[in-house]
Input
Amino acid sequence: MEVDVTIFEMGPRDGLQNESNFINTLDKIKLVNLLSTSGIRKIETASFVSSKWVPQMADGEEVMAGIQRKSGVSFTALTPNETGLERAIKAKADEIAVFGSASEGFSKANINKTIMESLQTFRPIVEAAPMPVRGYISCITDCPYDGPTNPAEVIKVAEELLDMGCYEISLGDTLGSANPDSTEKLLSALLSEFEMKDLAVHFHDTQGKAIENIGISLDFGISTFDSSIAGLGGCPYAPGAKGNVSTETVVEFLESKGLRTGVKREKIKEAAEFARSLRR
Ligand code: HMG
Ligand code: MG
Output
């Protein structure tokens, strides 16, 4: 089916990583399988990070081995370092992602590295990876530790990630505090440096502004949107942040604009009901 926009589903990773009760592996697999029959073509399925840092994601290998693969659907994983890449290759991830930050405070809190050290760690991973690599930049407008982010800091990190070979940059509103003004200011600055086809947006919805921010991103020509089924999630290292904007809402919004998402509404409704049942 032809689509006009890409939905990048975050629920099984960004969504579940923040749940305090351990979600059992079979439930994680069931959630991914429900999502992969919905028409969504990109599903962040696992996170090959340290289990001491994010215990919820410790069963990434088992999840990747248990899911039903589907042609046309990419099952992707986070990889912070070489160990992460090795695990992702063994687990047959279709795509991986490195994740940096535009602010030093979050970089240190999330991956225990300065921005410079993180980029030095990512380059050999991106260059060696036998699969496509996405690059995240967190704290695009605000950081929980350092306050507002200057767009120039986002541009610097994006240039580096694209230069090392990331095929796309996902702009992370980690705190969910971006608003139409800060989103417009950031995208205007990025527009003079990058092609919009190289950018995706990743809004958390802490303040209920995500859909407005997506509307602005659409006007700038962005066509890839990260979202989380049932709005699950948050980041353990961004205190107070809520989940990504919900997949159901994003699909409804994009289709109301006449854009084809390829996503079947009944199927995501079923996946959303199951996702909600996992929260206790
Ligand atoms: P560290 O403690 O500095 O690293 O952590 P280390 O190299 O000293 O390793 C510590 C231990 O972890 C060692 O084990 C390593 O072997 C192990 P020990 O010797 O103590 O038994 N280790 C690993 N194990 C499995 N897989 C690995 C791995 N690497 C090391 N890949 C590190 C540095 C990066 C590992 C750590 O800080 C970490 O895992 N951080 C990840 C935090 C995270 O997952 N945050 C959430 C995802 S990011 C996010 O949500 C934002 C995003 O959604 C965008 C947005 O919203 O802005 C993407
Ligand atoms: Mg996130």
